[in-house]
Structures are given as C-alpha cells and as structure tokens.
Amino acid sequence: MSTVELTKENFDQIVNDNDFVLIDFWASWCGPCRQFAPVFEGASERHPDLVFAKVDTEAQTELAAAFDIQSIPTLMIVRENVAVFAQPGALPESALEDVIGQARQLDMDEVRKSIEEAGPQG
C-alpha cells in the first residue's frame, strides 16, 4: 500500500477511520526526511494492514503546529485515536520495524486506562 498524503481537510477522517496510522512529518528540503522516505515506503509495503501517511510540514503548517512538530522528520503512531509514539529523527529500517512491532503489541485498554489515571495535563 502506498502512503497517504495527510492534509488538515482529511486528517481527522483518516485517523478516525483507521485503528493504526503511522505519520511521517517531513519537508522536501530536509535531507534526513529524503533519506527516511524509502524506509517508510518500504515498511508500508511490508505492513499493508496499516495506514502509512505523510504530512508535508511546509504545505500543512497548521497540522505541524497542532502537533508541536519542532524537528523533522518526526514519526508519530496513532492507535485508536491515541498517539502512542512520537519521535523526531530518521529511523533505520530495523528500528522502524521494532517500533511498529511494539505499537502492535500495546494493549489499548491499558493505554487508555493509564491516560485516564494520569488525568488532565497542563
């Protein structure tokens, strides 16, 4: 499956309609982003059951600001509308596969419970 381009218009629908979304925040001028792109694309082919999406931070400045993206590339994983992973930096293929495996194994009921117990932030 190829990657999906996320915009402020389709972001909510794609994240709400899919239980597992990997999001690559990137920009065309960013060298590490260009290095990470084939790794991300390769993972999308190995994991056709997951949604792989990209946010061009230059074109989608509101989305980048909403997620407080300070450094690119930043990889975010959203499971069942909960951001379970967010980390800047271009991951090597083995690290990306490891993160995907860990995110797949999360018990989302436990994640939601721990978020509830932590209470409101701020």
TrEMBL record:
Q: Pfam families, per this entry?
A: Thioredoxin (PF00085)
- State whether keyword Transport applies: yes
Task: Tell me which Gene3D superfamilies the record gives.
Answer: Glutaredoxin
Q: Does the keyword Disulfide bond apply?
A: yes
Q: Pinpoint the Thioredoxin domain residues.
A: 1-105
Instruction: List the SUPFAM superfamilies.
Output: Thioredoxin-like (SSF52833)
UniProtKB keywords:
Disulfide bond, Electron transport, Redox-active center, Transport
Q: Which InterPro entries match?
A: Thioredoxin, Thioredoxin-like_sf, Thioredoxin_CS, Thioredoxin_domain
Give the source's domain of life in one word.
Bacteria
Q: Which PANTHER family match?
A: GEO12009P1, THIOREDOXIN 2
Q: Which family does it belong to?
A: Belongs to the thioredoxin family.
> What is the protein's given name?
Thioredoxin
**Gene designation:** trxA
